[in-house]
C-alpha cells in the first residue's frame, strides 16, 4: 500500500502537505546537524545581505501592517463579527488574553526582560550618551520591539485567518486567506504549498525556541544548585518532561489543557511582576513607566519609519535588533496567527484588533519597565556595574538580577516555573497548530498525531542542540521571513477585498423597482424574477414598454408648455431617453440602457435555482444627466416607469429652486461663458 493511501486510512493528515514538509524538515535538520558550521556560515551571509540591503523593506512592510489594522479599527469594517452576525465568543476575555500571551510572547518576556534593556543600555553605539539618555533609549527601543508593531504582525495573520474561517466557513488554514483571488483553487496544489510553508516555519520556530530555552532552564537550575552542571543528559530530561506535559495538554484540547496552563502562567507572571515592583524602586518604576509610555507615543512614527540610514555607527545595532525582531515576529506569525484565530471566534474586528494590539503591548511595556528599569537602577546604585558586565551571559542574567532582592530562592524557583510553563504552553499550542495545518483543519484527529508532532519536536530539538545546529536553523527561519512578508501583504489585499464585498452584501437593499410592489401582479413578477434576459429581450422591453412610456409622458409635458424629446438608440448598447433642455440650467435627462452583467458560477450550477444557460444576462439600467449611479428597472410596468421619471423630475426641480445648488444645476451658464 502506498504511504499516501496509508495516511488517508489511518490519520487525518493531508499527504500533499505532510509528506513534502517532512522531507524538507528532515533534510534541513540533517544539513544543520552534520554540517553546522558550514550551513551557518552560508546562511549568515544570506541573512546579512538581506538585513543590510532589504532592511527598508522590512520596515515598510511592518508599517503597512500597523496602518492597515488601525484603519480597520476606525472604519465601518470594525463592526463585522468574526463569524455569523449572532455568534458569541467561545472564551472569556481573561482566558482569551491569557492564551494569546502564552502563544505570542511567552518565553521571550522572561528571557529578554532584563537582557534587552541592559543590552541597549550598554551598547557601544550609545557610549557617548549620558547614563540617563542611555536608560531612556533602552526603554524606548524595548517598547518599540515588544509593542504595537510586533502584535500588528501577528494581528494581520490572525485576523485574516479568523475572518475567512468563521465568516466564510473555510478551513482554519493559511490557504483560506487567498480565497478572494484563488477561489476554489485554494483546495489544490497552490493551497498545499502555502500550508507547507506555514508548517515548516512553525516547526522550525518552535524547535529553535525549545532548544535555546532548554539552555536557559539548565543555566537557572545550575544557578540554584538543583543540578550540578548543564550537560546534554539534563537537557534531554528537561525536554522529555516539557514535551510529555505539552502532548498531554494538546491532546486534551484548547478548551482544557492550553486554557488552564495559560491562566496559571499569566497569574504566576503577574505575581512575579508585582513582587519586583513592590520590593524594587517602586516610585522610580512608576515614574519611568509613565514617562516611557509618553516617549513611545511621541516617537511612534519616527520609530516606525526610521532605518538609521544617516547613522552608520548605529546600523549594526539596528540590524541585530529591530530588523531581526521584525523578521522573527514574521517567521512566527503563521503559528501565532493560527492559534489566536482559533480562540477568537465571535469577536468583532474592532474588538480583535484593539485587544491584540493594545492589551498585550501595555502589559509588555509594564513588564519590561519593571524588570528592565529595575536592572538599570540596581546596576547604577547597588551592583556598581555587575549586571552590565554580565550582559552577554543572557541565560543567567535574570537569576543574577534576583540576587539583589529578598527571598532570592523563592523568586528564582518561581521564575523557573514560569519559564517552564511558558515552554509547555508554546509547545502544546504549537503541536495543536501543526496538526491543524497538516490535516487541513480536520475536525477530529487521532491522538497519535499530536504525540507524533511532540516526539518529532523533542527529537529534532535535541539532535540540533547536541550537534550545534540550532543557530543554522534559527538563521534560516529569519531568512524565510522576507518572502512570507510579501505573502502577508497579499493577506491584507484579500482581506480588504473580502470586507468590501461583505459590507456591500449585508447593506444591499431591495431592488429599486420593488419599492412599491403589491400582490396585484405577483405571478407575472415571479416569472420575471425566475428568467434571465438576453440582449434581444431587453431591446424589446426598451422598445415596447419604456419608449411608449416616455412618448406618453413627453406628450403630457407638451400639453403643459414644456418641450420634451424622446430618443431611441438601437446601437450597442441599446438605450432610450427622455430629455428636457434648458438655457440657464443643466438639462434634465432620464435614460434607460441595456447593460451586460455576469452571473456567478455557483448560481448557474445550483440545481434548486432558476435554470440559466448562459454566463451573462442583460438588464435595463437607468442613467441621468448628472452622472448619478443608475438602477435596474426590469420589473417596472409602463405606468411605474412614468411614475419613476416624475419622481426624478420633481427632485430636479426641487434642487434647481435652491440657489446653493447653482454650481451643479447652472453648468450650462458656465459652458456659454
From TrEMBL:
PANTHER family: HIGH-AFFINITY CHOLINE TRANSPORT PROTEIN, HIGH-AFFINITY CHOLINE TRANSPORT PROTEIN-RELATED. The chain crosses the membrane at residues 12-35, 55-73, 93-114, 143-166, 193-226, 232-254, 266-286, 323-341, 353-378, 413-438, 450-470, 476-496. The keyword Glycoprotein does not apply. Its main location: membrane. It comes from the Bacteria. The lineage of its organism: Bacteria, Pseudomonadati, Bacteroidota, Sphingobacteriia, Sphingobacteriales. It is found in: Cell membrane. It holds the Pfam family BCCT. Belongs to the BCCT transporter (TC 2.A.15) family. Keywords: Cell membrane, Membrane, Transmembrane, Transmembrane helix, Transport. The keyword Transmembrane helix applies. This is BCCT family transporter. It is a multi-pass membrane protein.
